[in-house]
Design brief:
Layout lengths: L1 H22 L4 E5 L2 E5 L11 H10 L7 E5 L5 H8 L3 E6 L2 H13 L5 E4 L13 E4 L23 H10 L7 E6 L4 H10 L2 E11 L2 E10 L1
Length: 221
């Protein structure tokens, strides 16, 4: 089934690319429950993937009131806004300044407060302790050509994960949640985590349209 899906992707990709470029030539709305955001064309589009919705569903039943919550690489920021709606103390970071500007506007429109911070992973984050950290990472092994591609590609040698797992050694958080798809090289990513004495413990599997998505709890050994 996976091979069939990949074949279909390859066959339709030129048409999808053309159509999606036209569709995302202007900001588009994305909603979850009572929260709606405008997503800029230069920001990771939650409409195209399953991961954002899966993570939103995952935190839906978590008690977040007064919990410190970090969304590392927030993109559209709807996960951060939903956590704020659940009365968490939220910090949202990204390296895409357009994403951060739109998040500020969307927070205002939804009457929610989120601390918005420009940061490449943890580099500019002063606080080193959180109750929850949510990560929806780029995981395709290719060198990104621009800021938008950095939301999809982790570098030819998985540089994103090298930096992430190294920096996590200086962070205290009992609940670090990361989502990955079967389309990525999970074994290699897990090996890189182990090299930094970090375990990826699979806690949930969800299939959407024949694609398996996995939620991992990231734990220091």
């Amino acid at each position: 089934m996976k091979n069939l899906r990949n074949f279909i992707k390859k066959c339709t990709h030129p048409f999808l690319k053309s159509g999606l470029k036209l569709y995302y030539s202007k900001p588009r709305k994305y909603c979850y429950e009572s929260i709606c955001v405008q997503v800029h064309p230069g920001v990771f589009p939650p409409h195209l993937t399953f991961s954002t919705k899966i993570l939103l569903d995952f935190i839906k039943d978590i008690e977040l009131k007064n919990k410190t919550f970090l969304e590392l690489g927030c993109g559209s920021g709807i996960i951060s806004l939903y956590a704020a709606k659940k009365n968490a103390i939220v910090t949202a970071t990204d390296i895409n300044e357009t994403a951060l500007e739109y998040l500020k506007k969307n927070a205002h429109k939804n009457n929610l407060f989120v601390t918005v911070q420009y940061s490449d992973l943890f580099e500019n984050i002063v606080n080193t302790s959180f109750d929850y950290i949510i990560i929806n990472p780029p995981y395709y092994p290719k060198k990104p050509k621009n800021i938008l591609e950095q939301a999809w590609f982790c570098g030819e040698n998985f540089e994103y994960f090298q930096k992430l797992f190294f920096q996590l050694n200086n962070i205290y958080c009992p609940n670090i949640i990361m989502i990955l798809s079967e389309d990525c090289n999970i074994n290699h990513i897990r090996m890189m985590a182990n090299e930094q004495k970090i375990n990826l413990n699979q806690i949930k599997t969800q299939k959407v349209l024949h694609e398996l998505n996995y939620i991992f709890e990231v734990k220091k050994q």
